[in-house]
């Protein structure tokens, strides 16, 4: 089949860009003719990846609505795979029906219940491909239940793997003797889905008891993308300037190499990601692949990804403009989760190592060869059904 994959450009360091970078060549290796629509990361001309994968640019609309059909016609595509929130546009399903191509949205659900707007915008899809079992359960009670297929996100286990913490800290310029709590999270919008404030406050409580604790942030520190001024937030939460640090902001803006991101996970003692809701939570599997435990929320997709770490169970519900619920994590329980992992590292080093190895091994479920096989099964099903429609 001729397939258009629509996501952030494959050279982008975003979660969507990383998924496209790894998946598209594998689908091509399965025998599909592939093209890439980079609705983010390319304007003004068509590029190619390798010899024969064209990358089509966006035009004016930020989600590519104004030029999608033209790209599909130019490539003569049979199938469109979109990796983005389906609620941003009602265009894809109508266009698929009008132009007789199959639309396979690969999309998140990060609220409870599945938002009505998401369900409305799925109209016209061929299969509804979700990347969490949580989303599978939320979709099971909808009219799309028989269309749902599960394909999670993947991790490059050649890069994201266990390694020496001291070496990683030296590369990043981090103190070898601190207990480092790390965040790898996009600082976009407000209210911030990543729940920076509760985690900052929980960290400050940990720091008061253990002054060697240090908070390391792999994110944008400013409000440039509509997020929070994280330096001001740290000050308001009582965190001294010598108790936190952050990645090089220029490198973050242009995209750090994956090997450096892996070093970040190896350098920290735990990853904290108790978001209000996660459609997947790629840092959770990346961190564990590197042997680093995680502290997550016990809601949406997060607990199903956690093997090595702690899940915060207490929350306050928060109602969103999509008329669904997300969950503000309990500060005290976040702090207790940090404490538990601190104590394990210092009092039970053998258990710490065993859990690191167990968590890393479990991430084999998200290896890219596994993900490509699952996508291959979905596409084979679509190809069979497409052939039956043509014969009819």
**Radius of gyration over alpha carbons?**
21 Å
Helix content: 40-55%
Mean pLDDT: 96
**Total helical segments:** 15
Q: Main β-sheet: number of strands, strand sense, barrel status?
A: 8 strands, mixed
| Beta-strand content | 15-25%
This entry's quaternary arrangement is: single chain
In short:
With 392 residues, the protein is α/β, with parallel strands linked by helices.
Can you offer a commentary on this structure?
- The chain is α/β, with parallel strands linked by helices.
- Helices cover about 40% and strands about 20% of the residues.
- The chain has 15 helices and 16 strands.
- The protein has helices at about 15-30, 70-75, 90-100, 115-120, 135-140, 165-170, 195-210, 230-235, 250-255, 260-265, 280-290, 300-305, 330-345, 350-360, 370-390; strands spanning about 1-10, 35-40, 45-50, 55, 80-85, 100-105, 130, 150, 180-185, 215-220, 245, 270-275, 295, 310, 315-320, 325-330.
- Strands 3-4-2-1-5-6-7-8 form an eight-stranded mixed beta sheet, with helices on both faces.
- Helix 8 links the parallel strand 10 (about 215-220) and strand 11 (about 245).
- It starts with a strand and ends with a helix.
Topology of this structure?
Layout: E1 2-8, H1 15-29, E2 33-40, E3 47-49, E4 53-56, H2 68-75, E5 79-83, H3 91-99, E6 102-107, H4 116-121, E7 128-130, H5 133-139, E8 148-150, H6 165-172, E9 179-184, H7 196-209, E10 213-218, H8 230-236, E11 244-246, H9 249-254, H10 258-267, E12 270-273, H11 282-289, E13 294-297, H12 302-305, E14 309-312, E15 315-319, E16 325-329, H13 331-347, H14 349-362, H15 368-391
Parallel strand pairs: 1-2, 1-5, 2-4, 5-6, 6-7, 7-8, 9-10, 9-12, 10-11, 12-13, 13-14
Antiparallel strand pairs: 3-4, 15-16
Helix pairs in contact: 1-15, 6-10, 7-13
